[in-house]
Design brief:
The protein has 207 residues and is mainly β. The protein has one helix at residues 7-27, and strands at residues 45-50, 64-71, 77-86, 98-99, 102-103, 132-133, 139-145, 158-164, 172-177, 192-194, 200-203. It has one domain (45-203).
């Protein structure tokens, strides 16, 4: 005996099959829709901002930064490996020139002077320069890392800013950021201040 299936039943089956297929497709995420894990920010930039009031009239205006170093414990330590300077006000010395009658022995606005192990002593008339003069209101951004290049972040580490003192009262403040431009910085910013210049050491807070 032949079994006859009504036409409306065939349509019903087809509609159900399509609906099930749509539900299955909608419920199964494709590889492109899979959740993406976002890596936490790497706070490896140290920003030093000059807050000096007095102007050095002899080619080294603003705070004179000799270098940046850090120690995270367990043998994890390092220094600056890259640097950028947004120079502030004042005339910085250039090698072979002079400022207000004083001879210039080196470029005092070279940010790379703050890269590598800080000079001890950090000498005023050094050539090449042992330090970079920020200029009044200038900002120096130094990226730090280990010798192996595997520093994940400065959080929990001790950071030291080395600054050459002079006859002028120079001051600065320090922030730790995930970028050189200071867009994403650890709070509260600044993390440290040096109201009278000289070296400053502080511990970067944990998240």
């Amino acid at each position: 005996m032949r079994h006859i299936i009504p036409v409306f039943a065939l349509f019903a089956l087809t509609a159900c099959d399509v609906q099930d297929e749509l539900l299955t497709d909608a419920g199964t995420p494709t590889p492109d829709e899979a959740p993406v894990e976002v890596a936490p920010p790497a706070y490896t930039w140290v920003l030093v901002e000059d807050t000096s009031i007095e102007m050095n009239a002899f080619g080294a205006p603003g705070a004179d930064i000799c270098g940046v170093a850090f120690d995270c414990g367990g043998g994890v330590r390092g220094v600056g490996v890259d640097a950028h300077l947004w120079a502030g006000d004042g005339e910085a010395c250039r090698a072979g020139g002079e400022v207000n009658g004083e001879a210039c022995f080196a470029d005092r606005d070279d940010p790379l002077a703050a890269v590598g192990s800080p000079h001890d002593p950090c000498e005023a008339d050094s050539s090449p320069s042992h330090y970079v003069a920020l200029g009044l209101g200038g900002v120096l951004a130094v990226r730090v890392d280990t010798d192996d290049g595997d520093l994940p972040t400065l959080e929990g580490c001790s950071v030291t800013i080395y600054e050459r003192t002079s006859r002028d009262v120079e001051s600065f403040q320090v922030s730790v950021c995930a970028d050189a431009g200071g867009v994403q910085c650890l709070q509260p910013a600044p993390l440290a201040v040096s109201p009278d210049g000289g070296d400053v050491r502080f511990v970067v807070p944990m998240p």
